[in-house]
C-alpha cells in the first residue's frame, strides 16, 4: 500500500517536472525501487515531489504550469460570483431589487425586473445564465488540462451565451447594468485563456498547443 | 556562466561524497544514504550541478537482472576541481565536517 502511494506521489513529481526534466523524472522513478527495497518509499517519493515543486519556478514550463493553475483558481471566484448573484435574484428573477445600486446595497425597494409581458422569457433566460455559469466552471478545468481545442470551443459558447444574454436584456428593456458582471467575467476569461495559449505556443515551438490529446 | 556563490553545506557534502571515488558512477539512492541528504534536497542539487557542468549523468545497466536501467552520477573535471578547491579551503581554515 505504501509502495503504491509512493508510486502515485512520484508520478505527481514527474508531472511537476514536465518535459524539461523528463530524464530526471525517470531517474526518480527507477530509484524508487531502491527506496522500496530499503523500506522508505514514501519518504523518498515525498522528497522527490517537494524537490520537483521547488524546481518548477526555475524553468519556463514549470512557470507556465504554475501560472495556469493560478489562473484556473482565479476563474472560480468569477463563476462563484455569478452563482451567488443568481441565487440572490441576479439578473432577471422577480425577486431582484430595483437597479444595480439597490441590488448591491440591499436597501432598494424590491421590484420585479420582469413585467407581465416579458415574464414568459424568464425560464429561457434562467437556463441561459445557468449554462453560462456551467461554462465558466468548466473553463478552468480545460485550461489546467491544456486542452486548447475545448478551451476554444467553450470560449465561443460562453461568448455566444453572453452576447445572447446581452441582446435579450436590451430587447426586454431590462437594466443593462446587470450585464457588467457577465461581460467582465467573459473578458477576463478570454484574455487569460488567450494569453496562456500564446505562452504555451512560445514554450513548445516544436509541438504547438492542441497537437496532443485532442 | 561562472559560479560566484559559495557552495552550500549540502553541496559540499555531495562534492565530498562524489570526489572520494571520482571515476565511479553512483546511484541517487546510494548517494542519499551516504550523504544523509533527502531526495528533496539531493535531486534539485544534482539537477543544478548537472546544468552547471559540475556533475555528469548517465543511464547505467542495473546490477540486478530484470530491473530497469538506473541513472548514475559522477563529477566532471570541473566538478572535481571545485571539490578539491573547497576541500583545500576548508582544511586551510580548520573547518571540520560534523557527521550527521
Notes on the structure:
The complex is a heterodimer of chains A (214) and B (100). By secondary structure, chain A is mainly α. Helix content of chain A is 72%, strand content 0%. In chain A, helix 4 packs antiparallel against helix 8 (180-203). Chain A is elongated. Chain B has 100 residues and is α+β, with helices and mostly antiparallel strands. Chain B has one domain: Arc Repressor Mutant, subunit A (Orthogonal Bundle). Helix content of chain B is 49%, strand content 14%. Chain B is built from four helices and three strands; from the N terminus they run αβααββα. Chain B has helices at residues 9-20, 28-35, 39-51, 77-92, and strands at residues 26-27, 55-60, 70-75. The longest helix of chain B has 16 residues, at 77-92. The mean pLDDT of chain B is 85. Classes of the chains: A mainly alpha (214), B alpha+beta (100). The interface between A and B is medium-sized, with 24 and 21 residues.
Would you list the SSEs of chain A in sequence order as H and E? Answer: HHHHHHHH
CATH superfamily of chain B, by name, is Winged helix-like DNA-binding domain superfamily/Winged helix DNA-binding domain
Total E-strand runs of chain B: 3
Shape of chain A: elongated
Question: What structural category arises from helix and sheet content of chain B?
Answer: alpha+beta
Average pLDDT metric of chain A = 81
* Structural domain tally of chain A: 2
Structural shape of chain B: elongated
In round numbers, the mean pLDDT of chain B is 85
* Unreliable residue stretches of chain B: none
Spatial separation of the terminal alpha carbons of chain A: 34 Å
- Main β-sheet of chain B, in a few words? 3 strands, antiparallel
Parts with pLDDT < 50 across at least 5 consecutive residues of chain A? none
What about the largest sheet of chain A? none
Amino acid at each position: 500500500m505504501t509502495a503504491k502511494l509512493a508510486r502515485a506521489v512520484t508520478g505527481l513529481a514527474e508531472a511537476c517536472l514536465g518535459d524539461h526534466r523528463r530524464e530526471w523524472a525517470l531517474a526518480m522513478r527507477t530509484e524508487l525501487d531502491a527506496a522500496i527495497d530499503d523500506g522508505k518509499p514514501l519518504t523518498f517519493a515525498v522528497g522527490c515531489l517537494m524537490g520537483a515543486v521547488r524546481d518548477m519556478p526555475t524553468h519556463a514550463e514549470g512557470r507556465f504550469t504554475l501560472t495556469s493553475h493560478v489562473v484556473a483558481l482565479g476563474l472560480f471566484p468569477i463563476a462563484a460570483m455569478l452563482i451567488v448573484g443568481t441565487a440572490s435574484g441576479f439578473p432577471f428573477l422577480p425577486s431582484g431589487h430595483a437597479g444595480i445600486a439597490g441590488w448591491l446595497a440591499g436597501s432598494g425597494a424590491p421590484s420585479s425586473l420582469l413585467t407581465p409581458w416579458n415574464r414568459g422569457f424568464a425560464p429561457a433566460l434562467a437556463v441561459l445564465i445557468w449554462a453560462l455559469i456551467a461554462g465558466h466552471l468548466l473553463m478552468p478545468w480545460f485550461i489546467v488540462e491544456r486542452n486548447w481545442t475545448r478551451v476554444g470551443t467553450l470560449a465561443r459558447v460562453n461568448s455566444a451565451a453572453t452576447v445572447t444574454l446581452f441582446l435579450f436584456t436590451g430587447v426586454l428593456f431590462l437594466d443593462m447594468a446587470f450585464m457588467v458582471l457577465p461581460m467582465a467575467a467573459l473578458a477576463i476569461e478570454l484574455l487569460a485563456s488567450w494569453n496562456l495559449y500564446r505562452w504555451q505556443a512560445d514554450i513548445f515551438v516544436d509541438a504547438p498547443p492542441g497537437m496532443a490529446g485532442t | 556562466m561562472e559560479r560566484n556563490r559559495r557552495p552550500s553545506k549540502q553541496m559540499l557534502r555531495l562534492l565530498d561524497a562524489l570526489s572520494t571515488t571520482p571515476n565511479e558512477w553512483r546511484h541517487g539512492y546510494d548517494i542519499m544514504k551516504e550523504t544523509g541528504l533527502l531526495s528533496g534536497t539531493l535531486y534539485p542539487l544534482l539537477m543544478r550541478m548537472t546544468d552547471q557542468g559540475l556533475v555528469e549523468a548517465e543511464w547505467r545497466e542495473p546490477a540486478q537482472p530484470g530491473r530497469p536501467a538506473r541513472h548514475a552520477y559522477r563529477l566532471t573535471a570541473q566538478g572535481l576541481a571545485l571539490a578539491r578547491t573547497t576541500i583545500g579551503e576548508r582544511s586551510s581554515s580548520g573547518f571540520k565536517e560534523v557527521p550527521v
